[in-house]
Every structure is written in C-alpha cells, then in structure tokens.
Write a structure and sequence with these properties.
The chain is mainly beta and about 100 residues long. The protein has one helix and nine strands, in the order ββαβββββββ. The protein is globular, with a radius of gyration of 13 Å.
Length: about 100
C-alpha cells in the first residue's frame, strides 16, 4: 500500500495492512501538511467546510482508527464531499467516497 504526504511518498506502518479494508465506502485520497489541497484549481482550505456527519476510518500514518468528519464544500458550483481528520498539528488526512 502506498500513500502520499505533500507530494512525497511515505512508508506506511506494516500494521496498516492488518486493519484491512473494513470500510469499503471511502478511499484514501491524500495527506496534507502544507494547508493546500486543490480541487478544480480551488484550495479546500480557503473554503468553508460544512460538516455533515462522522465516519470511522484508518489514520494510515499512525496505523489506527479515528473519527473523521464528513464534509462538503462548493467548488465552482459543484458539491465536493470528503472525509477529513487532523491527525497531527496541521496535518490532515483526506478520504473520498468510492
């Protein structure tokens, strides 16, 4: 399994594989530490996130399960849905619906 951390490849703890694919509705998208995640040229961190719920997903950096907020934003007139958790100070993990 591979992940990305601000454009750099990260090595995931071997325990991550043991957690398995127990939540099949979400797919790991990226981890961000620089406050920049662009969707259609718009930085999500510049928008107001509307929280719509929570879901338990894998924090792949720490090989554990955490509560992620399910959020939506309006990007160029389109609804963009994601799950996000601040896993460390100013480090965010994003999942997208499958």
């Amino acid at each position: 399994m591979q992940g990305y951390f601000s454009g750099m490849e990260i090595i995931l703890h071997p325990f991550v594989e043991l957690l398995g694919e127990w939540n099949m509705e979400w797919k790991l998208n990226k981890m961000v530490r620089n406050g920049e995640y662009k969707v259609d040229g718009v930085n999500l961190f510049d928008l107001e996130w509307k929280k719509e719920g929570e879901v338990e997903l894998k924090d792949v950096a720490h090989a554990m399960r955490k509560q992620f907020d399910i959020c939506t934003v309006d990007v160029n007139g389109k609804k963009f849905k994601f799950a996000v958790c601040e896993i460390a100070q100013k480090v965010f993990c994003f999942y997208l619906p499958k």
